[in-house]
Amino acid sequence: MKSDESKCVNCQRCVSLCPTRALKIVKSDCILRENCNWQNDTIREVYKQANSGGVLLSSMGNPKPMPVYWDKMLINASQVTNPPIDPLREPMETKVFLGKKPERIERDKSGNLINNLPAQIELTMPVMFSAMSYGSISYNAHASLARAAEELGIIYNTGEGGLHEDFYKFGKNTIVQVASGRFGVYENYLNAGAAIEIKMGQGAKPGIGGHLPGEKIVGDISRTRMIPEGSDAISPAPHHDIYSIEDLRQLVFSLKEATRYKKPIIVKVAAVHNIAAIASGIARSGADIIAIDGFRGGTGAAPTRIRDNVGIPIELALASVDKRLRDEGIRNNVSLVAGGSIRSAADVVKAIALGADACYIATAALLALGCHLCRTCQSGKCNWGIATQKPELIKRLNPDIGSRRLVNLMTAWKHEIKEIMGGMGINSIEALKGNRLMLRGVGLNEKELEILGISHAGE
Amino acid sequence: MELEGKIRIPSGCAIAAVISREGNPIPGNLISEAMRPMHDRSNGLGGGFAGYGIYPAYKDFYALHIFFDSRSTRKDCEAFIKEHFEIVKAEIIPTEKNRAITDEPIIWRYFVSPLKSTLADLQLDEKEFVVRTVVKINSEMKGAYVFSSGKNMGTFKAVGYPEDIGEYYRLGEYRGYSWTAHGRYPTNTPGWWGGAHPFTLLDYSVVHNGEISSYDANRRFIEMFGYKCTLQTDTEVITYIMDYLLRRQRLSLEEAANVVAAPFWSTIEKNRNIPERDKLIYLRTMFSSLLITGPFSIVLGFEGGLMALNDRLKLRSLVVGEKDDRVFMASEEAAIRTMEPNAENIWAPAGGEPVIVTLGEGVEN
């Protein structure tokens, strides 16, 4: 075995496995002469591009010191005038149903209520594993996610890589994605899941498609994506049959027709400047659920400049979308799913209070599988067996352990969500949805508070 | 100090109610006296009453009870009402000076009927038009506040202790088949009469003891349907929810109770009556944002009946008793005993289980 420390990406694998705990990774103190404007990384990126003539690639979410609004919102608790509720003594409910709710009830001739609800997704807690394709992550990573979702009564998402034949059995805990490349999409695939997601965009790279290089399109991946071995899998930036909102409506209804109106349709969009208007259009397009992905969302590979400079924070996007849909009286047409860096149970609670029905998580799920956020997924050499297709690396991730750790993580979050809800005197998650009185801002300016629709702490 | 509505003020409370199942007249001072033993549940910052069947001579007209801050506001408001309603009677609501009641606004009542031509123009049914007019006056006309708008019923409320308010409004001179009462313990001092309870819309009135933790989730949902929560109180949002579920969605009282105090999922799943179970799942899913959490005990008054309801954990006291044709509901048994020393069948309804009493139908629960 040869080692070359110059290629160290700080994945911490050696540190974790060292039996004597003798290793630590320390940043070399040999740095370029820095100034505030031209920092070390900026200079090195210029050297790299001068060398290669190429676009810089990065992975995982935006690492820049942009505001994280979750950390500037604080949660309420009950004191005196109403009682906190102890989740160890009283029922504390986290179950949610995602999907469109009709405007009116209907009754049959004898006056009984008719169930006129369109297809819904039922979740035991308001968290789902977000889209990561088979190809961008490994078979064992997908197996871990699918098994954990089933055990937890939640959902994972295939991403745009098709559904491996081994995982059809997890169908009721699966969202199958239809993205611009349409890889792996056929009738059985569409009918295999609990819902179908049309991916219009992604927080880490709004307006950008995807590219899985031909060398990764081998064996199972080629078969699952339904493309020849060795051919590049290129997802175009737009869907080439969707150049407008009315085109989107056609695809929504095409998918509904193909699945006989038995599956809710999710439209996933990146949080961009006019997200409220876009969401309002989607809510009238027949979609059942809108998933909004904030600019800090992760990715297996994205152009660095796009990842770091395009899109807006999920907190602001979610708040303005929820408000717009309510102002227009169409909030019940759709459920809202927020993603793009939900890091903890507290972030989930804050997202629900701002107006989300549920959250998507992906980076946190990968951390549970061993990821140490070395941010080099694009190399395909993930030492933890997650973002790789190399057999010798994949086998480092044991799906038995992986799924167990995902179940642990979600179970822990569920406990925490219940604890926080109980403190507020709320014993069901639906009474938290859009309950912005439960949030206060700290250190936010008037405009930020206005957009978030919350008061400042002390008010 | 900002008026109620600009700020949200939580409060504790006392509630009481009485109904004659046979529709026999009950004098209003009975319910007023019932509030006396619960004096310490209020702090003198608000109280009020709603009586049903009190205006038999004008039963076909909407009775608008309105507070005005000045004579000119009243003139403006009357002019506005006249544009769209026929006013068959307008008068000052009779009151009796009481040392404990001060700073009273100008208090009038109008018996009105919407003009047919206006309804036809707007393509609205009568009730919806009255609701919109009330919302418009209360949210847009500064200094005017409609605090009662039903037919053959009326609300009487003020800042003070309920028993003093009952005397102030001379409730002994009214006869109704049902009454509800409220004494308030706000944690702040708004000193505004409009903020007192009951809160009413059309013939729905709500008295409420509690502080709901789902307030903003409920408010932001219900405001999608044209309601405006101008007072920021629990009682107001609960009234709008009831109006939405009962009048606009046409749910039954039991169904509405299953929405706002929905059984826990674990309870629903255990229900072996499959149609009943499916109905409960449907109602919870369909109206998930109208689930009310946190402590509450409410009495909903409506034309022809009363419904008492507790939050599903029963975090506030509520007892019910009976005697002959009368059914009594109150925060404390003492209030029931004041109305009827020999009350029978006193029981505390379980959390989330509505007690519904309607004229001629008896008690259901």
Structure in a nutshell:
The complex is a heterodimer of chains A (459) and B (365). Chain A is built from 14 helices and 19 strands.
Question: What does this protein look like?
Answer:
The complex is a heterodimer of chains A (459) and B (365). Chain A is an alpha/beta fold and 459 residues long. Chain A is built from 14 helices and 19 strands. Chain A folds into two domains: 49 residues, no CATH class; 353 residues, Aldolase class I (TIM Barrel), CATH 3.20.20.70. Chain A is globular and about 75 Å long. Chain A starts with 12 loop residues before the first helix and ends with a strand. Chain B has 365 residues and is an alpha+beta fold. Chain B contains eleven helices and 19 strands. In chain B, helix 6 crosses helix 7. The model of chain B has no long low-confidence stretch (mean pLDDT 92). At the A-B interface, loops of A face helix 6 and helix 10 of B.
Keywords:
heterodimer; A: alpha/beta; TIM Barrel; 8-stranded parallel sheet; 3-stranded mixed sheet; 31% helix; globular; B: 365 residues; alpha+beta; Glutamine Phosphoribosylpyrophosphate, subunit 1, domain 1; 6-stranded antiparallel sheet; 11 helices; 19 strands; 30% strand
Low-confidence stretches of chain B: none
Helical segment tally of chain A? 14
Annotated CATH architecture of chain B:
4-Layer Sandwich
- According to CATH, what is the class of the largest domain in chain A? Alpha Beta
Computed CA radius of gyration of chain B, to the nearest angstrom: 19 Å
How would you state the average pLDDT of chain A, rounded? 95
**CATH architecture term of the largest domain in chain A:** Alpha-Beta Barrel
Gross morphology of chain B:
globular
Oligomeric status of the shown chains?
heterodimer
Q: What structural class should be given to the helix and strand makeup of chain B?
A: alpha+beta
Q: How many structural domains are formed by the residues of chain B? A: 1
Rg of chain A, Cα atoms, Å: 22 Å
Terminal Cα span of chain B: 44 Å
Tertiary shape of chain A: globular
Q: What pattern of helices and strands is seen along the backbone of chain B?
A: EEHEEHEEHHEEHEEEEHHHHHEEEEHEEE
Strand composition percent of chain B: 25-35%
CATH class bucket of chain B: Alpha Beta
CATH superfamily of chain B: Aminohydrolase, N-terminal nucleophile (Ntn) domain
Helix content of chain B: 25-40%
> How does the major sheet of chain A shape up?
8 strands, parallel
- Measured between the Cα atoms of the first and last residue of chain A, the distance is 62 Å
